[in-house]
């Protein structure tokens, strides 16, 4: 049996971990890779706390400067790279609040400490991406008719009655086709979780 390809999200997570290791070893090009992979998430965190684009950009610059100086402090046993960097960005933004030189729009220092990042954590996004890739792979394993009907019902919002009318089959037949397709889809997803 051939090895299954790794989902892109697992590759992204591994690429970030490797870039962090390279940076800790003194590889300057790793900082650019880390920046490219994390800037959107980290900027969102700093902007949410500071409430000002310029301040958030300055805080983000501080994050990457300090990361360059302290990359060797990252411990992969304690946190994923993105979680560690997100905490780092949050702390830099809070430090800027404490200086009292932040422009208007920032949250108060007492509000910033518990401020949740309402965007999903990068790890959660990676897991979601892995699951979405597995669903696509399992759907692709279904026959074309079943794929079409499941996509139309669950992704495009068509009712079973609409699909039955379009396919010129009785409603019960359409329900059976989709139910059997969903059973095969479930079996595929369960098998992939055990792999």
From TrEMBL:
One of its GO terms (biological process) is DNA-templated transcription initiation. Residues 35-99 form the RNA polymerase sigma-70 region domain. GO terms for molecular function: DNA binding; sigma factor activity. CDD domains: Sigma70_r4 (cd06171). It comes from the Bacteria. InterPro entries: RNA_pol_sigma-70-like (IPR039425), RNA_pol_sigma-70_dom (IPR014284), RNA_pol_sigma70_r2 (IPR007627), RNA_pol_sigma70_r4_t2 (IPR013249), RNA_pol_sigma_r2 (IPR013325), RNA_pol_sigma_r3/r4-like (IPR013324), WH-like_DNA-bd_sf (IPR036388). Transmembrane segments: none annotated. The keyword Transcription regulation applies. Residues 134-185 form the RNA polymerase sigma factor 70 region 4 type domain. Keywords: Sigma factor, Transcription, Transcription regulation. Belongs to the sigma-70 factor family. ECF subfamily. NCBIfam families: sigma70-ECF. This is RNA polymerase sigma-70 factor, ECF subfamily.
């Amino acid at each position: 049996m051939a090895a299954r390809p790794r989902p892109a999200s697992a590759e992204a997570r591994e690429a970030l971990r490797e870039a962090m290791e390279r940076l800790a070893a003194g590889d300057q090009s790793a900082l650019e890779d880390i920046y490219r992979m994390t800037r959107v998430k980290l900027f969102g965190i700093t902007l949410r706390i500071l409430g000002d684009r310029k301040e958030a950009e300055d805080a983000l610059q501080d994050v990457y400067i300090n990361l360059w100086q302290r990359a060797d402090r990252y411990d992969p046993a304690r946190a994923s790279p993105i979680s560690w960097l997100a905490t780092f960005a949050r702390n830099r933004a809070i430090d800027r609040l404490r200086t009292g030189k932040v422009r208007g729009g920032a949250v108060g220092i007492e509000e910033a400490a518990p401020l949740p990042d309402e965007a999903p954590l990068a790890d959660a996004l990676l897991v979601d991406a892995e699951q979405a890739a597995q669903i696509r792979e399992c759907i692709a394993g279904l026959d074309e008719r079943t794929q079409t009907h499941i996509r139309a019902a669950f992704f495009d919002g068509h009712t079973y009655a609409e699909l039955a009318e379009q396919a010129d089959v009785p409603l019960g037949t359409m329900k059976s086709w989709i139910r059997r397709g969903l059973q095969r889809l479930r079996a595929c997803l369960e098998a992939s979780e055990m792999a």
